[in-house]
Amino acid sequence: MDGIQMVSVSVATYYQVYLSFQADIENASKEAKEMFYFGYENYMSYAFPHDELDPIHCTGRGHDHANPENININDVLGDYSLTLIDSLDSLVVFGDPVEFKRAVSLVINTVSFEKNTTIQVFEATIRSFAVYLFIYYTYNIAYYFGFCFVFSHEEFFLHAFRVIGSLLSAHWIASDDSCLLGDFFIPDYEGELLTMAHDLAARLLPAFEQTATGIPFPRVNLQRGVLPNTANETCTAGAGSLLLEFGILSRLLGDQTYERIARRINERIWQMRDEKTGLLVFASFSGVLILAGDVEEAVCQHSIYYAIWKKYGVLPERFNWHLKRPDVNFYPLRPEFAESTYLLYLATKNPFYLHVGREILDSLNSITRVRSYLYFMFLVKCGFATVHDVNDGSLEDRMESFFLAETMKYLYLCSYFYLNYFNKLLSYLLSFYLVEYGSCISHNGALPPDIS
């Protein structure tokens, strides 16, 4: 009986300590959702159909036609409602079928790629193009040799692209009238997003077809192809990370053009690797290490970026370890640190990373949403602003689309997975033990269920 009473005390203590922790994480989850909708609804109110929201002046921003050399803007913004397109899958994550269906309708009926804009191939592929494919798959289930692979809600968001892309023998796609992810099925949807993805990919092809190496030009005009005197330098990520999207598109269309191009690029880059190290580029983000299975190194790498975040409240674009100061001072609301924090929590289940996620939320709210300067308040009225200089906290009037599409999504999912894990644990404790009059009675003497 003493052993049972000891278990009773342990369970009660655990319950009291972690119940308050759960409440804090629940608040973080609600806060992440509120932050997403604060940015999204203001984009729709003040900026749509432009590509981005200027959160300080509450206006929209698109391609800079007056200054074609403004690649900081023009590489990304192509006058095709980028933030709305980029937010489609976030609306699924946040469980909003009504707005999701409205957003899909808006994209189908208002967005066109018939634009005289020169954009970066990499940005167009991983943003607009990839999201079209992701959303297309929320309507469908992949079939492989007649067997239906059904993903849980958690697995889908973590692995959707990678798993579906690996179903090389998938031969047909069915409309998801089973509502696997909730009520996101659109009965009259006829594959328009896939058609749009195909249209965009076809407009990018000149960048691949006009180089001797097959490695694409970094930029292409959506109407006129590769323009004279276009820069011929590109990064390995921009050239070599297109296989997933192009491969999936080829399989869906039954046209191997896009997959063949992407494979040819990867083979060419592989031939150019360093003979001694085998390296193409040094990837230091801990999220990449997690996906590669190196959790120990990922933890170490994450701690480095966490130390920088703690110092400034955000991450500078580039930090010089020798000088112990930023080389590039701005922070454009990038998602990589939030993504790494999320992946590390999934891999380790260590609540430390939930605390880090909460700190990121607090920093974004205090620094990029409302910022105090001495005796007056500088208010970001309509969203979250880029930090122009991490040293003084000055802000820049820009909210890039990946803030809603990635940064807020990862921070929300971090608390989402914890709450689901915790609720399973709490449910087990309450069903396994009956606490009554200070004594704890074992329920059938069963072993704890698998709650991972």
Automatic annotation (TrEMBL):
Compartments reported by the entry: Endoplasmic reticulum
Enzyme class, UniProt record, top EC level: hydrolase
Superkingdom per UniProt: Eukaryota
A Gene Ontology cellular-component term: endoplasmic reticulum quality control compartment
An individual GO BP term: endoplasmic reticulum mannose trimming
Keyword Metal-binding: no
Pfam families tied to this protein: Glyco_hydro_47
Record-given protein name: alpha-1,2-Mannosidase
Family label: Belongs to the glycosyl hydrolase 47 family.
Molecular functions (GO terms): calcium ion binding; mannosyl-oligosaccharide 1,2-alpha-mannosidase activity
Main location: endoplasmic reticulum
Enzyme Commission number(s): 3.2.1.-
PANTHER family for the chain: ER DEGRADATION-ENHANCING ALPHA-MANNOSIDASE-LIKE PROTEIN 1 (PTHR45679:SF5), ER DEGRADATION-ENHANCING ALPHA-MANNOSIDASE-LIKE PROTEIN 2 (PTHR45679)
SUPFAM superfamilies: Seven-hairpin glycosidases (SSF48225)
UniProtKB keywords: Endoplasmic reticulum, Glycoprotein, Glycosidase, Hydrolase, Membrane, Transmembrane, Transmembrane helix
InterPro entries: 6hp_glycosidase-like_sf, EDEM1/2/3, Glyco_hydro_47, Seven-hairpin_glycosidases
Transmembrane segments: 129-152
